[in-house]
């Protein structure tokens, strides 16, 4: 570093430290951030500027700040403004100082703040992306319950619109449950599914075939008239796949296939049918 | 080349594939198995693929061939323990393993063979 | 991104090594278990094709990225007789190697991108890519 540049840098750091009080107040005013939060940042920056300009601590604090703001739903501009507004606050002090050294030093500090601002922005977007991915995963988890209906019989009651990705996840989970529980019968109930497209219908079909390859049987229940219409219109071959009108019918079918005798089955079924309406 | 061991339990032969099979080993296993069915007078064969990470068309064809071959030699074959990922991949690949009986695990495979036998009387 | 890694395909044992390599890279980039199984199965089919139809060749295994999603790219190439009728070769059940005829058509269904370049006497080059979901 040349001598004049060094002097400029020293001067701006001096201002930065000596004018802490007014600087922080102004910074807080412009950015809208609480003064306590900014004081920590100021401390870290000051240590870095006075020392060997190692910004690791500053970045650490900024990273936390950006992540917290991403979670709290601040906009990216609001978040970046916290850093960029420091420039304006410092500039006002530099102007008051009126020296050439201070101005030159400001140019140097300004570039440093720009870098920190970009860093904030990057951390913010990374945090937002992570939140979105986590939520999507949670949603998938929530929407894919595989329940045990009876010893050796499991079911997936599907509710809501099925897209290709979700169908695949549900189906993989169902097949894994067959292995884990040693269940030879599975019911895929789509009573709560308003519509399916070709791809989803294909996935359902492939799951039934895959289960068969593994040594288990799948029954699809609750196909709505519109869905039956779609499947036939699209020309998708459902072949020898067993379908039942309701989950109750599917369970009765699976029970009889696994050798369970239902006593008074007729009455039971009437009761369940009544509940459905 | 590695050889897959063939175990005998009563009149059932059990083959548990624990290694990543190359094509030559697949063919060897096929021949070994046919020989053993005859020499031991086996009535059933269980092929356990619990540890098998992929079944491609070559191994798929072996499973179908073994099933058809042993049936001709009066023994029923059951393939057990296929992993979900393997089953999904086979479906996508377009292999249906026609003529091959399957069960979720070894225990259910044994039960299936016993049922098949008692049905025969 | 590390550069492509080349592996020879000259023996049945090499096909097994290719499968193991593809499996480990697929796991490394975070493909789901099902997607790992699909790409490894496709690699097995295509490697066998190279061996059966051209007597040998090679595969390049490469990690790729769209910026957001990581992926795995495999390039199988040989200097064999090539394919004269690609459309026919891609049909389910069509075979010249005595197999089930699912090698090409089946592996195309197992990957996200499939590109085949071939002409009689000029060898064959098949590029497949699987992206992380």
Query: What is the 3D form of chain C?
Result: globular
Quaternary structure annotation: heterotrimer
CATH topology of the largest domain in chain A: Globin-like
Shape of chain A: rod-shaped
| Element string of chain A (H = helix, E = strand) | HHHHHHEEHEHEHEHH
DSSP, total strands of chain A: 5
Distance between the termini of chain A: 83 Å
Binned, the helix content of chain C reads 25-40%
Description:
Chain C: Residues 34-133 form the Histidine kinase/HSP90-like ATPase domain. Chain C: This is Anti-sigma regulatory factor. Chain A: Residues 143-254 form the STAS domain. The complex is a heterotrimer of chains A (277), B (121) and C (133). In chain A, 70% of the residues lie in helices and 10% in strands. Chain A has 277 residues and is of the alpha/beta class. In chain A, strands 1-2-3-4-5 form a 5-stranded mixed sheet, with helices on both faces. Chain A is rod-shaped and about 95 Å long. With 121 residues, chain B is of the alpha/beta class. Chain B has a single domain, classed as 2-Layer Sandwich (Transcription Regulator spoIIAA), CATH 3.30.750. Chain B has a 5-stranded mixed sheet, with helices on both faces. In chain B, helix 1 (23-40) links the parallel strand 2 (12-16) and strand 3 (44-48). The model of chain B has no long low-confidence stretch (mean pLDDT 92). The model of chain C has no long low-confidence stretch (mean pLDDT 90). In chain C, helix 1 packs antiparallel against helix 2. Helices cover 38% and strands 28% of the residues of chain C. Chain C has 4 helices and 5 strands; from the N terminus they run βααββααββ. With 133 residues, chain C is of the alpha+beta class. Chains in contact: A-B, A-C, B-C. Chains B and C meet through helix 2 and helix 3 of B and helix 1, helix 2 and helix 4 of C.
């Amino acid at each position: 570093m040349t001598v004049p540049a060094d002097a400029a840098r020293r001067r701006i750091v001096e201002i930065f430290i000596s004018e802490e009080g007014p600087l922080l107040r102004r910074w807080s005013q412009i950015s809208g951030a609480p003064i306590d939060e900014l004081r920590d940042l100021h401390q870290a920056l000051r240590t870095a500027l006075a020392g060997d300009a190692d910004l690791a601590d500053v970045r650490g604090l900024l990273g936390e700040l950006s992540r917290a703001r991403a979670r709290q739903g601040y906009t990216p501009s609001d978040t970046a403004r916290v850093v960029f507004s420091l420039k304006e606050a410092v500039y006002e002090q530099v102007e008051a100082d009126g020296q050439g050294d201070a101005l030159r030093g400001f140019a140097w500090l300004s570039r440093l703040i720009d870098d920190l601002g970009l860093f904030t922005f990057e951390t913010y977007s990374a945090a937002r992306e992570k939140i979105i991915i986590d939520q999507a995963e949670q949603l998938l988890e929530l929407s894919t319950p595989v329940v045990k209906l009876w010893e050796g019989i499991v079911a997936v009651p599907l509710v809501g619109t099925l897209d290709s990705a979700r169908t695949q996840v549900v189906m993989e989970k169902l097949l894994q449950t067959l292995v884990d529980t040693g269940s030879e019968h599975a019911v895929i109930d789509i009573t709560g599914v308003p519509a399916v497209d070709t791809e989803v219908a294909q996935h359902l079909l492939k799951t039934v075939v895959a289960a068969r390859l593994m040594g288990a049987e799948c029954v699809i229940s609750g196909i709505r008239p519109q869905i039956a219409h779609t499947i036939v219109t699209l020309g998708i071959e459902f072949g020898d796949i067993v379908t039942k009108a309701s989950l109750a019918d599917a369970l009765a079918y699976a029970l009889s296939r696994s050798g369970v005798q239902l006593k008074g089955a007729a009455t039971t079924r009437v009761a369940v049918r009544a509940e459905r309406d | 080349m590695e050889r897959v061991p063939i175990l005998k339990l009563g009149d059932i032969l059990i083959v548990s594939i624990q290694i990543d099979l190359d094509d030559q080993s697949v063919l060897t296993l096929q021949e070994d198995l046919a020989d053993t069915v005859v020499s031991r007078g086996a009535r059933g064969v269980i092929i356990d693929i619990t540890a098998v990470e992929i079944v491609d068309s070559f191994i798929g064809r072996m499973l179908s061939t073994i099933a058809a071959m042993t049936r001709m030699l009066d023994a029923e074959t059951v393939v057990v323990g296929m992993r979900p990922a393997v089953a999904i991949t086979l479906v996508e690949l377009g292999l249906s393993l026609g003529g091959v009986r399957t069960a979720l695990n070894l225990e259910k495979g044994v039960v299936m063979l016993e049922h098949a036998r008692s049905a025969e009387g | 991104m590390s550069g492509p890694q080349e592996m020879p395909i000259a023996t049945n044992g090499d096909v097994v090594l290719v499968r193991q390599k593809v499996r480990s890279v697929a796991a490394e980039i975070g493909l789901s278990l099902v997607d790992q199984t699909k790409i490894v199965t496709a690699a097995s089919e295509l490697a066998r094709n190279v061996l059966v139809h051209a007597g040998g060749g090679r595969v390049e295994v490469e990690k790729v990225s769209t910026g957001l999603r990581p992926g795995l790219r495999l390039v199988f190439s040989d200097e064999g007789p090539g394919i004269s009728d690609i459309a026919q070769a891609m049909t389910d059940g069509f075979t010249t190697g005595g197999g089930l005829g699912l090698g090409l058509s089946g592996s195309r269904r197992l990957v996200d991108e499939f590109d085949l370049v071939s002409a009689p006497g000029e060898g064959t080059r098949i590029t497949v890519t699987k992206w992380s979901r």
